[in-house]
Amino acid sequence: MAPATSLPIESGNDILFPPMYDFVWSVIPFVILLVVSITVATVEYTRKRDVVASLGWGALVLFLPIIGFVIWAVAALIRRENRTAIKG
């Protein structure tokens, strides 16, 4: 039986959370960033951009997560408006 002063997640020497709990929840944000970065690079590559530009946009989103994604989205919207203005 645990002493009355122990925290709810403690029970003497027994930890109630699995040992990998902290590791898994620490890795998930990095996995999400990697998936978003690969998605941005793939979208840029399918838009007929060269490989270096595609990897550059992917790296921007990977290393500057929120700001990089906003910069990429604004640049994509500007390119889209320029493309539609030229067509007609």
Overview of this protein structure:
The chain crosses the membrane at residues 23-43, 55-78. This is Cardiolipin synthase N-terminal domain-containing protein. Keywords: Membrane, Transmembrane, Transmembrane helix. This protein has 88 residues and is mainly alpha-helical. It has one domain (10-87). Helix content is 70%, strand content 5%. The protein has three helices and two strands. A two-stranded antiparallel sheet has the order 1-2. Strand 1 (10-11) and strand 2 (14-15) form a beta hairpin. The longest helix has 26 residues, at 21-46. The mean pLDDT is 79.
The percent range for strand residues is: under 5%
- Oligomer state equals single chain
Topology order in helix (H) and strand (E) letters: EEHHH
Cα-atom radius of gyration: 22 Å
Helix count?
A: 3
Low-confidence stretches: none
Structural class: mainly alpha
> In which order are the strands of the major sheet placed?
1-2
Shape: elongated
How far apart are the termini? Answer: 77 Å
Number of strands: 2
- Profile the largest sheet: 2 strands, antiparallel
User: Any idea how many domains?
Assistant: 1
